[in-house]
Amino acid sequence: MGRFKDAAKYEKTIFAVISITTFLLIWYLVTKDTELGKVLAGPVTVFGKFFKSFTEPLGTHVIPGHILWSLSRVMVGYVVASILGIILGVTMGWSRLVEAMFRPLFEIIRPIPPIAWIPLAILWFGLGELTKYFLIALATFSNVTMNAYSGAKSVDPVLIGAARMLGASDSRIFMTIVLPASVPHIFAGLQIALGSAWATVVAAEMVRSSEGVGWVIITGQDTNNSVQILVGIIAVGIIGYVLAIMMRQIEANLCSWSERGK
Predict the structure, then answer these.
(1) Which of 177, 215, 176 is nearest to 70 (CA)?
(2) 107 and 21 part of one domain
């Protein structure tokens, strides 16, 4: 069985390398001595600038500095919203009263994209860091809450009924049955939310920033510097991919007993 898993991993790696190489080759060919190449930099130029930006500052920071600024903003909004989302989602799934009180409001707020809140966020929190944290938290909150809610609602009622017949209290049922059963769903929500939060940081950093990957992209737009724009986009993509891998690994270690963790 282990051999089949190893073979599957190697196969995924090979196909990943092939797909990325093909993409880069197509990008190179369509921008090499063509009309498109006049408005879109080729991969050699872009990746050359990307690696140079590790030592040559873009603005006041090198690219790792911009990435760290963005990650710090994401982590603040993400952690706070994840805690609140897990609490609200699991509680809504467990308590009919809480569900009746909060789910209608949640369903109204959930479809609104975080970027739509920018004008209000500026009015409420000004142009500082709180606005960025707020937007990132909004991107996180809905995904975590919905998955935590689905996890709590999906618990087999037969298990709950059997536990009650054996004399278990509601608090004990919640802690020993409902919460553990919700964990795989919660991790699914956390993984989706992390991707959303990382994507939202670009919009959040459009609000009066002097650092961050969003700043790199928006400044490149203001100066018509397509190379800098693509450097920022590459940084967003690479870090987003790394974050997704990290979350999957954490889930695999903590939820090895579940289908998702295998």
Answers:
(1) 215
(2) no
Percent of the chain at pLDDT > 70 equals 94
In a shared domain, residues 76 and 97: yes
Q: Is 61 helix (H, G, I), strand (E, B) or coil?
A: strand
Rounded to whole angstroms, the Cα distance separating 148 from 92 reads 9
In this structure, are residues 246 and 190 in contact, taking their beta carbons and an 8 Å threshold? Answer: no
Q: How many residues does the chain have?
A: 262
**Cα 46 to Cα 40: distance, rounded to the nearest angstrom:** 10
195's tokens: 């991707």
Count up the domains in the chain and report the number.
2
The verdict on residue 261 lying in a domain is no
Which residues contact residue 224 at a Cβ distance below 8 angstroms, ignoring those fewer than 6 apart? none
Q: Identify whether residues 73 and 109 lie together within a single domain.
A: yes
Tell me the residue range of the domain where 12 lies: 1-40
pLDDT tens digits, one per residue of 139-174: 999 999 999 998 888 887 777 778 778 777 777 878
